[in-house]
Fold:
Amino acid sequence: MEDKVSLDIFWVLSKNNRNQIIISAVVSLVLAASLWGGFFGVWRDKLIDLLFTSKPASGDIVIVTIDESSIQSIGQWPWPRFVFGRAINNLSSAGVIGIDVNFKEPSGRGSADDESFARALQSSVAEVVLSSEVQPDGGLILPLEKFRAHSLQGF
Structure:
């Protein structure tokens, strides 16, 4: 009986009100189907592109690479850790220093080499970000604890 009453109320509404309810329901269904089907994903991606690509590069980023010229000048890879410590000291005016070299094992040149690098990390005015190794299972191999204590970790 309640179903009959609710249907009767629907038909008792003015024709204008019925049309508004039907149009609202159809528009809601179309929008819901569009959102569920990913129709607006393209527009969202375009908006994100506009937000993040319309600004010119600031020129504040400097990338220091390890290239053939560096290897000729400094010597065979892997370099002693004091070389990285010296680079950190030379880049003291930077806001952030990122080093994409993994320091997961003790130096083959002995603990003094590790200690000089740890001291450079500790005394750095700039934040230093050291890389971590991402494993196939999603785990991370982090730098040695003595380096993590005075740096941030990235991957």
